[in-house]
Fold this protein.
Amino acid sequence: MTKLPFDLLQQGIDYAVLNSDFQGAFECYNSVKKWLTNKSGLAKNSPEYLQYENYLMKLKFLSFNYLSDNNERVDLIRDYFNLAFEIENFNIWDKINTELISIGDIKERDAFKVEMKEAMEKCENIFISRQKYENQEIPRKVSEWIKSFIANLGLDKFDKVKKIEYLSNNRAIKILDSSDKEKVKALLDIYEKLRISSKTPEGYENSVLMNIDGKSVIFNQGSIEDVSNIDKIKNVQKLDDIVNNGEKSTVSNNVFEKGGVKSGLGNIKDDLALENKNKASTENSTEFTSELEQSLKNYSPSSLEYKALSQEILRLKKTEAKRELNK
């Protein structure tokens, strides 16, 4: 039986994260999956098999946006969510957010959020080590932490002040060291974002670049960011082009073959991993425009947020009008 070195798998994971080569990670995932299923000769549930599966699932998280359907993503969150937090310098929300942006229809986007949220609520993974805090009464599983969030912050949109108080004063969180506190905060942030509808300015994932009073700003999830960094502006424009025009990302493959695993580990931006998806434009949604018009009432007419929303509503209506003329 040919063994696949664990350090080789870790190198592949580190390389993919460092170079944002998530298509390469997907190729590696498929190769390892095939090897583990057909050629490893290992008995399922054996310690060695489970260790390989651990690496396999980490590769699958890196490949999140390349998986064939949402059921795979939901199962991954429900059954292995803790592993996403074991990958150094990896942010699982970036992958979820990229997937949301690629879903053109707002109702479908919200439905995916609900599936992700419910998968987190059902996740029985150990999130905080038992050995690390032995004999301490604190939540251990992902699902237990989410129950703690709800018990302390309620079922509605989380209040910002209560959220700060919870993270600062909750007895269980006080016991944690700094790294575990950051993990819990990240978990809370993801869960909170999934609870907010994409129909609202706060929940709308697409960043919108616009010019207000001569300043370049990015309107993103209900807030305005003044930007002078040209690279950041280009990234927003590039992502917008890909979502709306169906442009395909390109990959420069540096083939990595060793120990029986072949992986195209090259350079690709995670935010651009939108191939083979429905590129229908969210911005053409009449329902979404109506939601923005309702949200406009929450801002002062003199605020940048009001100006940004007004500008975006006008642009959406013009786009919809053009579409109707072209029918």
Notes: Residues 6-326 form one domain. Residues 242-284 have pLDDT under 50 and may be disordered.
